[in-house]
Amino acid sequence: MGAVVMHNVVSVDGFIADSKDQVGPLFDWYSNGDAEIGVNDKVSVSEVSAEYVRPMWAGIGAMVIGRHLFDITNGWEGSPPAGEHVVVVSHRLRPEGWHPEASYYFVDDVARAVAKARELAGDRTVAVAAGEVGGQALALGVVDEVAMDVVPVVFGSGKRYFGPVDAQHLLEDPHVVIQGDRVLHLRYKVRR
Amino acid sequence: MGAVVMHNVVSVDGFIADSKDQVGPLFDWYSNGDAEIGVNDKVSVSEVSAEYVRPMWAGIGAMVIGRHLFDITNGWEGSPPAGEHVVVVSHRLRPEGWHPEASYYFVDDVARAVAKARELAGDRTVAVAAGEVGGQALALGVVDEVAMDVVPVVFGSGKRYFGPVDAQHLLEDPHVVIQGDRVLHLRYKVRR
């Protein structure tokens, strides 16, 4: 089976957006270079970031996201930014008539959502959005790796990368430490 | 003048201790190697960490700390872990009879405390403890660099590296990215 990777861009103090969902300078590195990454033609990053991001995004089979992210993006209109399948953690059902062609599933429990995504992804990676859903998944012990694209900005407050986590979890030393332009790519395995 | 460097060991989610001041695994790297760093014989780190830490600690002339850290360490009994001078941000005065030989100063305002430390340090570095005091200093614009020794652990809650900071502050890309054993040394200049 593929790995379950919690992922997001994050400030040096652990925030993925401010309290109003604004990402401010966190996404600047997505457009500060000339290198394309293949899956999204609005993204054009530095070559060093592209070398890291390209295989990571290409390896994603399914994403797990929260209902909030689904709602604010309208589910990317049925075209996920990576992979072919999206599992939305939500107590509410799929909106009636919403992109019937899209491989989106609505599951009301984080553990079951991750299990469904693993089934859909097969050998490929399951990317779990950090924040509420990612934090719950980590606390449940179903996350294999934590990928943080750390942007050199202090946020001070906002929405936390680790969401509701309220206990200590050890990680391995990072097996990825790559310095891009306005982003430091880090990736840690969760210690078992 | 020397630089003013905010510094601490920190979890991947930005905490420097839990809510009861316990550092848990954050300090493991201080004793997981064979290399001494010269200023504190209880510290014995990996060689790669020692090469970074030795000149940094040797370059410190004065420290700025909060009253809370002073109280829980009893001011390191008058022997600061680095440098010769300590400025304590406190509304209360120096405890009567406490180590009269020690070069410790008690100042009730963060900006004045940093100014006093710069005067004492001369050309050497002023190290400002992260947390309440460091966060206030950053917000006041008197911090030149942010040094984070990032330990691969999620804390979930506790005392924040950036303390009371509640606004965005841009940093430069890190000019130090050094991977030790159970610690990633990062150092950023504050963008002006």
UniProtKB/TrEMBL annotation, chains A, B:
It comes from the Bacteria. Gene3D superfamilies: Dihydrofolate Reductase, subunit A. InterPro entries: DHFR-like_dom_sf (IPR024072), RibDG_C (IPR002734). Transmembrane segments: none annotated. It holds the Pfam family RibD_C. Residues 4-173 form the Bacterial bifunctional deaminase-reductase C-terminal domain. This is Dihydrofolate reductase family protein.
